[in-house]
Amino acid sequence: MSKIVVIIGDPRKQGFNKALAHRYAKEMQEMDHQVELFDLHEMNFEIDMALGYQTKRSKEILHLEKAVERADLLVISFPVWWYNVPAKLKGLVDQLFWIGKAYSFHKKKFLFNGPWRGKKARLIYTLGGTELQHRLFGWSAYRAMRYPLWISGILSVKRSAIGSLDLPIRKSDNDYFAKIKKAAQSDHHRLRTHS
Q1: pLDDT 10s per residue in the chain (195 long)?
Q2: Sheet of strand 3-8: strand arrangement
Q3: Which domains are delineated in the chain?
Q4: FRET partner for 14 with CA separation of 20 to 30 A, picked from 71, 80, 109, 177?
C-alpha cells in the first residue's frame, strides 16, 4: 500500500475539477492505497508572502508539508485559468516548496539530490479550451507546476489534461471520469513496479 497526497488546487467551493480529484482518490483507495485529500478552498494561509521567506506558514501548510514528506505520490488537480494556475494555488506552491525543506541551492539539495527525490507526481488539470491551445502557449500552467516538483527532486511527473470543457465539443462526464480511472491505473502500476 502506497501513501498518496491529493491536493485539490481549485479555490472554488465546487466544480468539475474537484469531482475529478475525488474520483481519482476513490479509484486509488479501491486499489488499496492510502489517500489523504487537501482542498485548497478549505485551507487558510497568507498567499502573497508579504515577508518573503520570513512569512510564518500556517499549521495547515505545515501539516500538508509533513504529509507530502511521507507520501509516495503527490497528485495536484487544478483548473487552468488564463494559461496558468489559480493565484491561491500559486501561493500554496510558494509555501509548500519551502526553501531549506523541499530544496536548497546553498546545500546543493535540488533536482537529482532534492529532498523529495524518489517520489512520483501526477498533475490533473482542466481547461475550458483545448490542450492544443495550452501547448501553443508553451504548456505554461503545466510547466508552472512541474518546475517546483523537479527542483524538489520529484522528477517522475505524469499529467492528465481534461480539455474542451467550455466548448461545444465537450464530452460526457463519464468520458472524463474514464480518463481519470486510466490515470489512476497507470499510477497504481507505477507505484507497484518502482517501489
Answers
A1: 899 999 999 999 999 999 999 999 999 999 999 999 999 999 999 898 999 999 999 999 999 999 999 999 999 999 999 999 999 999 999 999 999 999 999 999 999 999 999 999 999 999 998 888 888 888 899 999 999 999 999 999 999 999 999 999 999 999 999 999 999 999 999 998 864
A2: 34-39, 3-8, 73-79, 120-126, 156-162
A3: 3-193 (3.40.50.360)
A4: 71
The three state secondary structure string of the chain is CCEEEEEECCCCCCCHHHHHHHHHHHHHHHCCCEEEEEEHHHCCCCCCCCCHHHCCCCHHHHHHHHHHHHCCEEEEEEECECCECCHHHHHHHHHHCCECCCEECCCCECHHHCCCCCCEEEEEEECCCCHHHHHHCCCHHHHHHHHHHHHCCCCEEEEEEECCCCCCCCCCHHHHHHHHHHHHHHHHHHHHHCC
Strands 156-162, 34-39: parallel, antiparallel or unpaired by DSSP? Answer: unpaired
For residue 78, give the C-alpha cell. 487544478
Q: Assess contact for 103 and 34: CB atoms under 8 A.
A: no
